[in-house]
Design brief:
The complex is a heterotrimer of chains A (337), B (565) and C (375). Chain A has 337 residues and is α/β, with parallel strands linked by helices. Helix content of chain A is 41%, strand content 19%. The radius of gyration of chain A is 21 Å and the shape is globular. With 565 residues, chain B is mainly α. The chains are: A alpha/beta (337), B mainly alpha (565), C alpha+beta (375).
């Protein structure tokens, strides 16, 4: 029995002793893995008495987890999550209203319209097609220019896309289609696309990673992942379809019920600062803070013009329903191929 | 005089000895421990299946939703048929392999025995990753797929065969090596043909082993999560459904329902195994003489070739994963690099995940082995009657029938409940340790019980008559004699905690992500090489633990050979 | 049945006066496991320095009684008093006894000396005294040269002696032996039982041995307690048990005998069975026509040539024989009654008692053991 006591002492007390020094903020995020270390470093350098503990997962997972923990919140802050998710949580009164210092400087369409604000945007990202040119040559696949091109039967079994239930990228992709083709048209399109899809992946990065490895010819993913992989030398082309792409904001919010409200506010201030915006600019081309020049290279020049005209609030309100419908239509329904 | 019962008056109330009292206290603490960490979480899981998201009772509504959702029902069927096919393939393979090991005189048996253990040292995701390197759309052997896809049932079955092989082969080796040599002599004296001997002596003798191995393989496949996650593609099974409901949709209620469905085959298998076990004890004679095969080329050569090819296949699968972990950019740049081992590039936890896993496994092994052994001792040598001992014994065997995912789910529901004072351990290493100990409790418990039962039952009586307290005999006699068994439990717990995914995937916190979970996450993000690298690191650590067990075990045997029979 | 209990025990269970107060008093001790009664209220006394054996077939309750005395399985009812102290409810550790089990239960990882010295601990046994005592005991059981060996390196007999030495180490008032010899082979067994007996006599330690081997019990005990189905059938010296069994069970269980049913015949003192009529002293107190169980031991059968007719003799045919060295044991049959007879090899030759031979047989009337069938 002494073993248990000893173990409990060791396990229980060690983290407590460590946490004495700095305020430890539990930050939920759907940021990409390579972003986490530099973001944490920069924030902790700017705010010396704050320590960030990331909980990272795909957008859908983090969203579902935050909602599930509503009664007993574990997160202090959300930094880098789809605005659709934040709006859904706003509707459930889960966000702490707070206008960060410098928040007004953000583009008006990339921050909360409430006062005080409930969320602030960081950057925007769009869906994109990762197209493996080597596989294309081997399999004689045509280079798609529009979403409609993907319905070509030659793509059968060659397309991977993220599952919108778990992946924010997946959701923004279908939200773009809905904005573009209307809901009826989008479902009709997806019904046909489903015939060509080999896999719906858990994460939004996976389709592009898989396309880069040539496991599949076409991965529906998002701009930042495809650009990063192309910059690493993967034989992929990034295609921003000309018939309009969905886009999404990465945003920040303080969770209502945080036990470290003061520290959370200061971190929120940091997330809208110029330093932070420059950090976002290392990965994304469309930033919420005007006047900051993105340093990321390799973005297709024309993509900003191809954004669909989306109403975030409407789509966010329909999110649950759309996901349930998607689930009903495509998840597990397809016979194994 | 013929009265059947003694008069009820004047019944003696024996004064409990301090030994008895302390064992009873340990039993009570053990009961408390297993109630808190097993019975209550499972009970809250059960309750949760009958509630909606807001915690109100909805009766069977969740189950009604389940059976009317075709995709969920299909998953259950998928789990069953892939498990069935895997069992049908693994059992004959493992039987032939075990037959070669125990009933032939082929050379190199020890090395075949060692290779047989390889798959249990790696997380189940490793063979799945390997198969993608081999048979994926860019795989080296993709022409063998003849246009088919590895993503789906065939990939799952292929990887499960590798993953389940050791369990089946170990069980069947034990079954085949405990044969009674006298039966063979008798059969030969009666001039029975070899085939007839095989049918009438070998097979019936191994029947229990065959049932038991089939049950174990079936359960392993149904409850494993790593393989379908990696290679299942759009082919859903029960285990991935639980994950999707719980992690993807955070729908703990539906998760609980699917968890209960997942519990069904496991419980059925468990009961079948118990039943077969009962049959076996009835037919085993205590006077059996060990069977010793005599060299015979016509049996030994095919056995050797068969075992060689199986061992090679196992080695190839491991080797491919190792090789894949060193490749710079599969399949376009095959130059070798250590970059994939720079885990921080792919997952925030980086190498921390590995160290955390080692820490988790070490604590699980030492705390778990101590707990399991002491509780098993209190059960075997303490008071036998009373509900406490009976319930404790039952609780100790339940974890075997509870899949890791279900236990993990039960843990979130129970420990993350706002009203639970034990909720403080949620998200800490402690809950991972607790979960791992409970998940692997029964195997350790059975090992401990077997070891304790081999001791003379009168040790405690003798020391009581000599006025020596029981804890002193426990320390001076029981513990030293049982050291090999304790060491076995220790290494088993260590390796299991290192490799398990399903038990901990729901429970890790911001700073407590184990390596095996990191493998899942890296694979989810499409980082196959890094995932393979992490799986290889886990395998290397488990392998070292296993080798250490061999070395320490050998040393121990040498130092104690004087008093061991 | 009640008469049987009179041996060595005042009929009044509470009466403890008398010369030489018994060392161990067992009164109305019973044991029940669930609904199964393993021991029905038994009573007996053991005197200081006495060697008492509990004898009976397996399941008769002898081990249950021993374990009740040791406190390993406390009795359900009754009282056990050792040296004037009521120990009925005490745990083993608070009693005063040494015990040797059938398996010896030697600690395999401890040497012979460590095993013997295992209970010699605490303030009463400083190191020097402990060493001295262990050496003494090793000497006593003749293992002085095996001190550093482990049990697994000893023969069965040697292990048995180590167990004995360990049980005796702290000079307990009572030595309990639970089938101590049954794990040994026949020759070692014969030798060791005499050794145990002489050791016991030398040390004067009160000893209770449980055994199912009647020969063992007869050869070493001062008194024997014969038990059956949770009851004491008889308590007595080996001679009493053998020559004057108190019940049909004892007659059948102890020693070798032929067993048959008979009816009391006229005149008084005669019985009839299988159409044969024979005198039987013990039948004289029974009523005519009463059914009785009868036992006759092989050594109590007299054989003569067929021509020799005497009172109660009858004709018997030799069915087979067994040559045992000092005696020949013949299997005989008369009118379907089967029995055995022991004769000297000389008599065997004299009578020409080969299978098929016809002889005149007679059961010694004073040695026929007769018990009413429905007691």
């Amino acid at each position: 029995m002494r073993f248990i006591l000893l173990a409990l002492a060791l396990l229980g007390l060690a983290p407590m002793a460590e946490a004495q020094q700095r305020t430890r903020l539990t930050v939920y995020t759907a940021l990409e893995n390579e972003q986490l270390a530099p973001f944490k470093q920069a924030a902790e350098a700017a705010l010396r008495d704050i320590e960030i503990a990331w909980v990272r997962d795909s957008t859908g997972v983090i969203t579902a987890r935050l909602i599930a923990e509503k009664a007993n919140p574990r997160a202090d802050l959300v930094w880098g999550l789809s605005v659709f998710s934040l709006l859904q949580m706003e509707a459930q009164d889960m966000l702490e209203p707070y206008s960060p210092q410098g928040g007004e400087a953000l583009r008006a369409n990339m921050r909360s319209s409430r006062s005080p604000m409930t969320w602030t945007g960081m950057d925007a990202f769009v869906s994109a097609i990762c197209f493996n040119t080597v596989v294309a040559q081997q399999r004689n696949l045509p280079r798609p220019a529009t979403w409609q091109d993907l319905l070509d039967p030659r793509f059968r079994g060659q397309i991977v896309m993220p599952n919108p239930n778990s992946s924010g990228t997946g959701f923004l992709t279908i939200s773009g289609w809905i904005a573009n083709m209307g809901e009826q048209g989008a479902w009709a399109f997806m019904d046909r696309l489903h015939e060509n899809v080999q896999q719906y992946t858990h994460s939004g990065s996976a389709p592009c990673n898989n396309a880069a490895r040539g496991e599949f010819g076409v991965g529906l993913s998002f701009d930042m992942r495809s650009v990063t992989l192309k910059n690493q030398g993967a034989p992929i082309d990034i295609i921003v379809p000309t018939d309009g792409v969905g886009f999404d904001l990465e945003a920040t919010a303080i969770m209502r019920g945080t036990r470290n409200l003061e520290a959370a506010k200061r971190l929120a201030d940091f997330t809208v600062s110029r330093t932070a915006a420059e950090l976002y600019g290392r990965f994304y081309a469309m930033l919420a803070l005007p006047g900051v020049e993105p340093t990321v290279r390799g973005y297709p020049a024309e993509f900003a013009q191809r954004l669909v005209n989306a109403n975030f609030a409407d789509i966010a309100a329909a999110r649950e329903r759309l996901l349930a419908e998607w689930q009903r239509r495509y998840d597990g329904k397809s016979a194994p191929r | 005089m013929g009265k059947p019962f003694l008069a009820q008056s004047g019944v003696i109330r024996p004064k409990a000895s301090s030994d008895e009292i302390s064992l009873r206290i340990i039993q009570a603490l053990g009961f408390l421990f297993l109630s808190l960490a097993l019975a209550l979480p499972l009970a809250s899981l059960l309750l949760r299946a009958f509630e909606d998201q807001h915690g109100s009772f909805v009766g069977l509504r969740n189950f009604a939703i389940y059976v009317t959702t075709p995709s969920l029902v299909r998953s259950a069927w998928n789990s069953v048929w892939t498990a069935f096919i895997t069992t049908c393939v693994v059992i004959p393979l493992a039987f032939a392999y075990a037959y070669g090991l125990t009933r032939s005189c082929m050379p190199g048996k020890w090395i075949f025995r060692a290779i047989m253990f390889l798959p249990i040292l790696a997380p189940s995701l490793l063979p799945a990753l390997s198969l993608i390197y081999l048979f994926g759309n860019q795989g080296m052997l993709r022409w063998m797929m003849d246009g088919g896809s590895i993503y789906g049932p065939w990939g799952i079955i292929g990887a499960q065969i590798f993953y389940c092989f050791p369990a089946a082969a170990i069980l069947l080796s034990v079954a085949l090596s405990t044969a009674d040599g006298r039966l063979y002599e008798a059969a030969e004296a009666l001039k029975a043909s070899r085939f007839r001997i095989f049918l009438t002596v070998t097979l019936p003798g191994a029947l229990y082993g065959l049932v038991s191995a089939s049950v174990v393989v079936f359960t392993l496949v149904v409850t494993d999560f790593g393989i379908p996650k990696v290679i299942g593609g759009q082919f859903n099974v029960l285990a991935t459904d639980v994950y999707k409901q719980v992690v993807g949709r955070q729908d703990l209620n539906m998760g609980a329902v699917v968890g209960l469905v997942l519990l069904l085959p496991a419980i059925l298998a468990f009961l079948l195994d118990r039943w077969a076990h009962g049959k076996r004890t009835a037919t085993l004679s205590g006077r059996a003489v060990a069977y010793r095969p005599k060299p015979r080329l016509r049996r030994d050569l095919p056995a050797f070739l068969f075992c060689l090819s199986v061992a090679l296949a196992l080695m190839v699968i491991v080797a491919v994963a190792v090789w894949g972990s060193f490749i710079r950019f599969w399949p376009y740049n095959l130059s070798l690099t250590l970059d994939n081992y720079d885990f921080a590039r792919f997952d925030t936890a980086g190498w921390q995940a590995v160290w955390l896993s080692v820490k988790l496994s070490l604590i699980t092994a030492f705390v778990g082995a101590a707990l399991i052994f002491i509780i098993a001792y209190s059960l075997e040598r303490g008071p036998q009657r009373g509900f406490l001992a009976v319930l404790l014994r039952l609780l100790a065997t339940i974890p075997l029938a509870v899949p890791g995912l279900v236990l993990g789910l039960a843990f979130i529901i129970f420990f993350n409940h706002p009203a639970n004072p034990f909720g403080i351990i949620y998200g800490t290493l402690a809950i991972l340790v607790l979960n791992s100990i409970i998940h692997f409790y029964t195997v350790g418990h059975l090992t401990a019980v077997t070891a304790i039962r081999q001791l003379d039952p009168e040790f405690e009586a003798v020391s009581a008559s000599l006025h020596v307290p029981i804890w002193q005999t426990f320390g001076r006699v029981t513990l030293p004699i049982c050291l090999p068994a304790i060491f076995e439990i220790l290494v088993f717990l260590f390796v299991s905690a290192m490799t398990t995914v399903s038990a901990v995937i729901f429970l890790y916190g911001p700073d407590t992500k184990p390596a095996s979970v990191a493998v899942v996450h890296m694979d989810e993000a499409g980082q196959a090489s890094a995932a393979a690298a992490m799986a290889c690191v886990i395998m290397a650590i488990s392998l070292s633990a296993k080798l250490m067990q061999l070395v320490v075990g050998g040393l121990f045997a040498r130092f104690t050979s004087a008093w061991r029979r | 049945m009640v008469a049987a209990l009179d041996n060595g025990l005042g009929t009044d269970a509470g009466n403890t006066t008398g010369i030489g107060d018994p060392f161990l008093k067992i009164r109305d001790v019973g044991k029940q496991f669930g609904s199964f009664v393993a021991l029905e209220r038994v009573s007996l006394n053991v005197l200081t320095g006495e060697f008492v054996s509990f004898l009976g077939p397996s399941g008769c309750g002898k081990t249950t009684l021993l374990r009740a005395i040791a406190g390993l399985d406390p009795p359900t009812v009754g009282r056990i008093i050792q040296a004037g102290r009521d120990i009925t409810a005490l745990p083993p550790a608070e009693r005063d006894f040494g015990i040797v089990f059938q398996s010896y239960a030697l600690f395999p990882n401890l040497s012979v000396a460590e095993n013997i010295g295992y209970g010699l601990r605490g303030a009463a046994w400083p190191k020097a005294r402990r060493h001295q005592r262990v050496a003494e005991l090793l000497q006593l059981v003749g293992l002085a040269d095996q001190t550093v060996k482990y049990p697994a390196q000893l023969s069965g007999g040697q292990q048995q002696r180590v167990a004995l030495a360990r049980a005796l180490a702290a000079e307990p008032g009572l030595l309990l032996l639970d089938e101590p010899l049954s794990a040994l082979d026949a020759i070692v067994r014969l030798h060791l039982r005499q050794e145990i007996r002489s050791l016991q006599q030398r040390l004067g330690v009160t000893t209770i041995m449980v055994t199912h081997d009647q020969e063992e019990a007869l050869s070493v005990s001062d008194r024997i307690v014969v038990m059956s189905q949770g009851r004491i059938e008889q308590i007595g010296t080996p001679e009493e048990i053998y020559c004057a069994p108190a019940s049909a069970f004892v007659a059948g269980f102890v020693g070798r005998s032929a067993h048959f049913m008979a009816k009391v015949h006229t005149p008084t003192g005669y019985i009839t069975t299988h159409g044969l009529v024979m005198p039987a002293k013990a039948a004289s107190t029974l009523l005519y026509g009463e059914e009785a169980e009868v036992f006759i031991r092989p050594e109590d059968v007299e054989l003569r040539p067929i021509t020799d007719h005497g009172d109660g003799s009858f004709e018997a045919v030799v069915a087979g024989y067994e040559f045992l060295g000092p005696v020949c044991r013949l299997g005989l049959e008369a009118n379907g009654l089967r029995f055995e007879a022991d004769i000297t090899p000389a008599a065997f030759t004299e009578l020409g008692a080969l299978p098929g031979a016809r002889l005149s047989a007679r059961f010694r009337p004073d040695r026929l053991l007769i018990f009413p069938a429905h007691g």
